[in-house]
Amino acid sequence: MADMQLLAASGAETAAQIAAGEVSADEVLDFWLSRAANDRLNGYLWKSGPESAREGGAPGGPLSGVPIAIKDIFCTEGVPTTAASRILGGYVPPYTATSVSKTAAAGMPMLGKTNMDEFAMGSSNENSAYGACLNPWDTERVPGGSSGGSAAVVAGGLAPWALGTDTGGSIRQPAGFCGIVGLKPTYGAISRYGMIAFASSLDQCGPLTRNVTDAALLLEVLQGRDEMDTTSVGIEGGIKAPTAERLDGMTFGVPRGLIGEGIEAGVLARFEDTLIRIAELGGEIVDIELPHAGHAISAYYVLAPAEASTNLSRYDGVRYGLRSSDEDLLSMYELTREEGFGPEVKRRIMLGTYALSSGYYDAYYGRAQKVRTRIVEDFDSAFAKVDFVVTPTSPTVAFRLGEKTADPWTMYLSDVFTVPISLAGIPAISIPAGLAEPDGGGPELPVGFQIAAPAFSEQKLIEASHALEQAIGFDGSAALEGGAR
Amino acid sequence: MSTEYEAVIGLEIHVQLSTRTKMFCGCELSFGDEPNVHTCPVCLALPGVLPVPNEKAVQYALQIGAALGCELSPVSTFDRKNYFYPDNPKAYQITQATYPFAVNGRLGEVRIHHAHLEEDAAKTIHTGGGGRISGSDASEVDFNRGGTPLVEIVTEPDLRSGAQVREWGQLLRATIRQLGVSDVNMEEGSLRCDANISVRPVGSDELGTKTELKNMNSFRFIERGIEAEVTRQKEVIAAGGEVEQETLHFDPSTGELHSLRSKEEAHDYRYLPEPDLVPVVPSPETLEMAKSSLPELPAARARRYEEIGVSGQAALLLSFEVEWAEYFEGVLEAGTGIDPRVAANWVTGELAAELRRQDDRPLAESKVGPAALATLINMVAEKKISHGSGKSVLEEMVSSGAEPESVVAEQGLEQISDSGELERIVIQAIEDNPKPAEQVRSGNEKAIGALVGAVMKATQGRADGGEVNRLLRQHLGL
Amino acid sequence: MIEREQVLHVARLSRLRLSDEEVDTLTGELSSVLDHVDKLAEVDIEGVEPTSHVLPLENVLRTDEPRPSLEREVALSQAPDPHDGAFRVPSPQAEA
User: Fold this and answer.
1) Shared domain check, A445 and A315
2) ipTM, two decimals
3) Active-site positions of A?
4) How far is B275 from chain A (nearest CA, A)?
5) Does B135 touch chain A (CB under 8 A)?
6) Computed over its alpha carbons, how large is the radius of gyration of chain A?
7) B419-475 maps to which CATH number?
8) For residues B437 and A391, what is the distance between their CA atoms, to the nearest angstrom?
9) pLDDT tens-digit map of B327-356
10) Which of A334, A364, A394 is the last residue of a domain?
11) d(CA A110, CA A273)
């Protein structure tokens, strides 16, 4: 089979080709290993050799033989796992994350571990201790983050699909920036065991794929109750490949109050186009209010750093990872952590520690938890009226490397549409809505369209996204070859 | 006139639960194994792991709560308590800071503020400087113990002296031991006790500045440590000083108190709800089970024994050890019409002493069953043998396991019931010992002891002491 | 707004030995973030329960069945300073 055909095929198509005997699993693996070997995007932090990749995938499953890239936040036995941090440089876990065990059990060889923002903290992948990852549409731009590597390798033709994690937008935003599909399931749909924790009450694993069908197939592999994670419940009835072509009878709520300031003209235009598409497919557009969603970023930047500050306390130089001093106990702690963590991680540890410290808890953490309740209630009210809530995935298209690193809050605002949904714990997907020029001009870049649904209604969400995706007919092939720019 | 001061003491007691596995992972509990052979990704706090609570630990905790007369919470939750130390691998301990599983209880005269579930720290061995923290250059951490389920019991400040703490502590230990949910062995650390101590003028309601006395491994040491600290605080105040809030360690070998000041930052535990765990909501059936599965607890049992006439001291001794209580009740059951007070004295007195004397044998290995002891007690009560013979029969029973009847027959200890025979021996004894006989006659009644001794010697102890006395007095004309 | 002294205090709690330059930068950055976060005070939270979890789950427990532990060599394989089967760490500073 010609390389171009393999490159252009989705995960589902490749699986079908293998099943039909049109191509062997070995040929598929060799092809993707050679693609990954030419990593022009710094998308991989570790790449499988042919032997280790073959060991990984058990034959026989419906997706057997289709390789997958894994965000370096998932622990993989015998394979370095760093979460893109210096503090875990060279760390090799003795166990494998449940999600990775599941993809392996489904017959999917692991291609490699993908680049990310350190400990999943960031929206540009610039916070990796191992160098920024580049956007395949324009290598002077960021792929988004924190699952930037996973998005870039899928969009850039270095993997058929990938696993990522999403805490405040870390799957959806990079999927939007790279012109692919990213699905964050309901909190609790997929086990978090073996996924290095950032903010435990928000972290969720999910797929980054070429299309909605692939996302559905991967979600079916990943979802389920895991006895190692008490907060995992799975999705009742499982997930089937989508077939819907129309949106008749479905209502889509648009929180106009949220979609205002700071949004790029091109992004807004593609968003409005997409609303028209929805209407053409028979869907109804309704204006809704999410009165407290505007406070979501503020609440999130208390809650997530607070949880992170305690989750990251275990990196202390005692049992694994970096140790920078043996002088005395306090120096071991302070120098190891000072040297091992990057600036954004330190910023969030500091912020979170402050928010939890004596005398500040009620003003920050306690208050933010209550605002979170308000946001949950906002979505409950919205879903009493509509089936879905839709927004642009991000207010801008992919920005330039270094463009937003000076002011943390500016960077944080790129998650203004994704964070409220994370706080509510509900599922959301980003699908490509077309291309748009950035404000100030330049070549066109992908724009993501975000659809959120009530908790555990992933099947419905996937059906609607699939219908819309077919109607939009986005073509991401320009990024695949890397010849783009 | 100088002010009188009283001590005000509250306790924090840690109880290691005797589940098979740790609180949040499936590693087996162990004691005394090679270091770091019972660890897994969860209890080593490797990146990416999550805790899963042990159902049995929750059950055991609820049983302790019920035994302490607590209200069992309809909802309890876990929190993270953050502090850095090598024995705390996550750098936070999972505990219950806000909604513990049990509140507002009482054991004996002491109110229980609450009891909560948490995980134990690992063991740090300081090497180099003779095992002491200061002066050593390194420590070694063994995570076998890390993650053992603990129940922490926090009392109200209702105790007033070291002796009271010791007695109450023993009652608490006996109570928990009887539930079968912990080994409650202080030397092995499965029961640990910290005391918060302050003093105040008698009659005052206010609490003085307290100090914390840490982790002593016997109730004797706790008693001594508390007494030493109370004395110290009174002296500080008498000298016009003020008690400083600090943590202290009592060295039982020197009787000295040391301050455990640390250079570390003052603690700010930054508690937050544990996001990796969901609430524990015991079902009505679980709560009922915790309450109904309670065996008769020591305090209640001691009361019941006293009501049937057992002396206070013996009642407490029997109640604290369930096997002794069961043995005692076995004696009562086997011996019809037996006097509980007499039976209790035989069990806690003669039998306990004899077992101790013969290789310090535990009751479980005693060759004397409750029925055999009951027979012996009845033989003494019915004056078939003397009390003194009874003791030597018991000695033989403990050593060989023989039945009391056969020992009595073999050694010819049957009491002389023929009063004519005994009378002859008494008359003979008076004749053979004219000096004491004369002393008794002239008013020195104490001298009768020598005559009793002579009779007992002649009868090899087979005479009833009361009867001997009566006959002697009769023949001496008293 | 956060003062330099507070930043130093929080750094000590966090076990980060920040450089002077980092302390300066963080004082500015954290102040700016906190200015935004302080807008949470505008939200009416009267009588609102805190959300620490969106899932309505309870009693997810494990039976008290042992599972295999790690081989000790594996447990210690990533340790910076394994010694005699244990994890060796420097001792706390001796008291001055």
Assistant:
1) no
2) 0.97
3) 71, 146, 170
4) 5
5) no
6) 21
7) 1.10.10.410
8) 118
9) 998 999 888 888 999 999 999 999 999 998
10) A364
11) 38
